[in-house]
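Researcher: Next entry in the queue.
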Amino acid sequence: MSNTLTLIAASAADKRATGINVLQVGNDVDPRTLNLDGIERIELHFPKFTDGRAYSQAYLLRRRLGFKGDLRATGDVLVDEVLQMQRSGFSSAVLRADQNLAHAQAQLTRFASFYQGDASHPAPLFASPVAATSATPTPAGATA
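Model: Structure for this entry, 144 residues:
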């Protein structure tokens, strides 16, 4: 799986969005009610790591509403959440100040692929063109 999530250290995050249209969305807002015309980045907030409503918002924005801009995770963003953020449709994430950027990068390369589909690749692995054309290995001791 290719790394499609840009990780940003809290110290490097620019709190001011200059030159782009940014929409900051609370996790209690229904994305279907938003006017996305001209919006280049949407920031979805995680108030605490146990609150995952922003995952649903991201998936809805990417898959159903077709948002193509930057979806950024902010707030209580931990290393162990970045892989799920990438799979949910986020394109960038600002790590919480006490999180290690190198550890987060390693999380994103941990798995080569996933069996089930996600926001970036909706088809399950068995339905992908690569899986359909690859030969099934013959078990040891069996004849082909």
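Model: The beta strands are 6-8, 22-25, 41-46, 70-75, 92-94.
Researcher: Noted, moving on.
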